[in-house]
Amino acid sequence: MAFYKKRIVRPDTMQDIQERLRRNAVLEQVKQEMKDRFPTITADNFATVNDWREARIIELTKQPNGE
């Protein structure tokens, strides 16, 4: 017999929803900036691109309005 555990999920608050929307907007902005800044990603420049992307995401998420 399989073990079954009921998962209790709390409803999303407006703050949760706003944070997710803000995070999605930041990720979309970084994606577009990355395409403009690094048109071609290769194995040679991947580390540089990824470091820039991660730093940019952190920079934008620390801003109060995400812009």
Low-confidence stretches: none
User: Strand tally, please?
Assistant: 0
Structural class: mainly alpha
The radius of gyration over CA amounts to 18 Å
Number of helices: 2
CA-based shape: flat
Approximate strand percentage: under 5%
Percent range of helical residues:
55-70%
- Distance N to C terminus: 52 Å
- Mean pLDDT comes to 90
Q: What does this molecule look like?
A:
This protein has helices at 14-37, 46-62. It has 67 residues and is mainly alpha-helical. The protein has a domain at 18-62. The protein starts with 13 loop residues before the first helix and ends in a 5-residue tail after the last helix. 1% of the residues are buried.
Q: What characteristics describe this protein?
A:
0% strand, single chain, mainly alpha
Task: Please sum up the structure shown.
The protein has 67 residues and is mostly helical.
SSE layout:
Elements: H1 14-37, H2 46-62
Helix pairs in contact: 1-2
